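Attaching the record inline, Q. Sequence:
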Amino acid sequence: MTDPVVPVEIPVPTGEVRLLAAVQKRLLAVPGSRQTAVTLSHVGEHALGWMGIAAAGMVVDPARRGRWAMVGVGSFGAHATSVVVKRIVRRRRPDHPSVAVGVGTPSKLSFPSSHATSTTAFALLAGSVTGVPVAPALVPAMLASRLVLGVHYPSDVLAGAAVGAGCAALTRAVWPWDAVQQVLPGALRDGAAGPRATEIPEERR
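Structure, as predicted:
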């Protein structure tokens, strides 16, 4: 009988603790940074804010209802992916006297940042629907906010952004597929099935 596989915890280098403490100190010196970080934390919790925006897009922009559904599904999928990775890696959140924790968290697990993951996926997908470059403004703000609040290491948020970008790319790639379109309600389907069913704004430039 084989022994059960035990998840391996990634040790946190002392250098990253010092880096987090230094970055947090600089960011907290910016007026309003803590309150802004708390607000972003609430909006991004469990990707609920991003899914809410996607739902609003489905209502106010019926011509692109299916694409806004893609944004919501992709944001949720990115969040779910981050949770699975967290439970495999099992890295603990920062816990050091030099790091001030500014908000409560639903989990003690840290890698990758779920906020960074879902926010990046949302920003890239919403940008692909609207043609507005959302990611360059929103993603760095969310990544910085997690450091301001002391709930993630720098590598957590960078990894989260990378996972989120991958989830966004995968969502955009598979959404037009026949197999995906056929399981969607009629109101959410693209006009024509197939890999190139619907153009996105950036492809028309």
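The first helix runs from residue 14 to 28. Confidence is low (pLDDT under 50) at residues 192-200.

More tomorrow.
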